[in-house]
Structures are given as structure tokens and as C-alpha cells.
Design goal:
The chain is built from 11 helices and 13 strands. It is α/β, with parallel strands linked by helices. It folds into 2 domains: 137 residues, Medium-chain alcohol dehydrogenases, catalytic domain (Quinone Oxidoreductase, Chain A, domain 1); 134 residues, Rossmann fold (3-Layer(aba) Sandwich), CATH 3.40.50.720. The strands form 4 sheets. It has a 6-stranded parallel beta sheet, sandwiched between helices. Helix 4 packs across helix 5, helix 4 packs across helix 10 and helix 7 packs parallel to helix 8. It is globular. The model has no long low-confidence stretch (mean pLDDT 96).
């Protein structure tokens, strides 16, 4: 899709004021002015001038609304930090938003539906936010191992009704305080809704595909829901700072690195589940 990106600025337009050539920058997949009422409210992904970044899978990329979209580092980072900074551009920012939307708090119990890159980043986010128990719903060994590395305390391999029942067993029949839905299917959304306790919250960031709700069931379930495209720009300065200080290493989610010319193989590897997330280099 070409919407995750970081790199060195080579040229700026005449109206750009906050970044300059030679700086290393990270940008969000949602382009925003960062000044409109929605941006100021923390939802840059609903900016009145919103555009979606595309075309970043190339040697050079043009970034509209650069002043409101790009965040620069104080100095050029070492090559070892590039994967971790790249992750902040989308998958970490989206996983972080899922945890934020699900109201993850110190000492809470969190369940994460989805073991792709975003779900794994949601686990990392929940850990950073102080969750005491993090239940990763995953059936793939390599992803289970990475989930535990990022902070998962429990792994549930079951899906559907069996997965919901297992979450209830792990929480003494109560359900999770917060659930992060990171897939977007009917099955995953149902699993998220039925795994959270009354009064609990669901942060959903998986783009919905054929998902429907029973309005009356939701009414009596008394569960909060917030989601949509992640306002990554809101979180970028903090996430980049955590990376630069060595506090988090989200780039571990990139388990395959390929040159730009082999982009098709990168997508093929992810589609065939030979890779969690591919990083392309130029």
C-alpha cells in the first residue's frame, strides 16, 4: 500500500516551515494539517484536509501537508533504529490507538484479537500502558513467541465460541477489561465483543469486512466501542521518543527485510504467513 515510511528529507516546498532538507522524519499514513478542530481534538485521522499516504514504496515520496504530518528527530538515527522508527509510522501507532481506544489502564486485564503486526503492537502498547494481564489470541507459534516477548502473559489458541470461553475462564468468568480488535472480520469482532466485561471497552482498528451488529444485544451488553483509522500523528512524538531512548523495540515485528525491487516477494511471504511484516529498503 505504500503508506508506512520514514527517511531523510531531500527537498521541501516553499510553504513548508517545520522540516528542512537533511532531517530524518517519520510520517503518519493519514496526512493532516494538525491545526483543524479535529486535529486539535486528537483525531488527525479525521482532519478536514485528510489524505491517505500512498506511493511510499519507492526511492522517493512526496508528502503533502508536511508541516502537520511529519515529525523530525533531533539528529540522524543509527541504522539499528530505523526498523523501530518505521514501525511507529503505522503498525505501532495503530496498535497504540487500539489500546488507547480500549481504555487500557494500569493493572487492567487486556485481550488482543489478532496476531498480525498490529495485534502484536497492541500487546506492546498494553504493556507500556501498565496492563497487568495481557491475553494474546494466536494460533501461530512464531507469533505467540513474539507476543510473549512484547508482554503477553497468556496465549489463547482457540477461536470463536471456544476462544471466548477460554478468555472467560482466564478471568474468573468476568471477561477482559479491555479488548483490542485488530482483524476486522465478523468472527473477530464477535470474539472481541463477547470477551469484554460489562462496562469494558473495545478498541477496534481492523478495517471491517462484512461486519454487522445486533443493536439490541449491544444495548444490553453495556460495552464501549471506539475505533477507526488511527490518529497516529497524535502519538508519534511520544512513540518516537520511546524508541530513541531504547525503551521499546517495535521493529522486531519486521521479520523479513527485502530490497524494494523484491516487493512482490514481500507481499507473497506475508500472504503465505512466512513473514509477519516485511520491511523494504532502498
Amino acid at each position: 500500500m505504500g503508506h508506512e515510511y520514514c527517511g531523510v528529507v531531500v527537498e521541501v516546498g516553499g510553504a513548508v516551515r517545520t522540516v528542512r532538507p537533511g532531517q530524518f522524519v517519520v510520517g503518519s499514513f493519514c496526512l493532516s494539517d494538525n491545526t483543524c478542530p479535529h486535529c486539535k481534538f486528537g483525531f488527525q485521522s479525521s482532519c478536514v484536509q485528510r489524505e491517505f499516504m500512498t506511493g511510499a514504496q519507492a526511492p522517493y515520496a512526496r508528502v503533502p501537508l508536511a508541516d502537520g504530518t511529519l515529525v523530525a528527530t533531533a539528529e540522524l538515527p543509527g541504522n539499528d533504529l530505523i526498523p523501530h522508527l518505521l514501525a511507529t509510522s503505522d503498525v505501532l501507532g495503530t496498535g497504540w490507538y487500539a489500546a488507547d481506544a480500549a481504555n487500557v489502564r494500569q493493572g487492567s486485564t487486556v485481550a488482543v484479537v489478532g496476531d498480525g503486526a498490529v495485534g502484536l503492537m497492541g500487546i506492546l502498547a498494553a504493556k507500556e500502558m501498565g496492563a497487568e494481564r495481557i491475553i494474546a489470541m494466536s494460533r501461530h507459534r512464531s507469533r505467540q513467541e513474539l507476543a510473549r516477548d512484547f508482554g503477553a502473559t497468556d496465549v489463547v489458541a482457540e477461536r470463536g465460541a471456544a476462544g471466548i470461553e477460554r478468555v472467560k475462564e482466564l478471568t474468573a468468568g468476568v471477561g477482559a477489561d479491555s479488548v483490542l480488535e485488530c482483524v476486522g472480520t465478523q468472527e473477530s469482532m464477535t470474539q472481541a465483543i463477547d470477551s469484554v466485561r460489562p462496562g469494558g471497552s473495545i478498541g477496534y482498528v481492523g478495517v471491517p469486512h462484512g461486519v454487522t451488529f445486533d443493536g439490541q444485544a449491544m444495548f444490553f451488553a453495556q460495552r464501549r466501542m471506539l475505533g477507526g483509522p488511527a490518529p497516529v500523528r497524535r502519538f508519534l512524538p511520544d512513540l518516537m521518543d520511546r524508541v530513541l531512548k531504547g525503551r521499546i523495540k517495535p521493529g522486531k515485528v519486521f521479520d523479513l527485510s527485502l530490497p524494494l525491487a523484491e516487493v512482490a516477494e514481500g507481499y507473497r511471504a506475508m500472504d503465505e504467513r512466512r513473514a509477519i511484516k516485511t520491511m523494504l529498503t532502498v
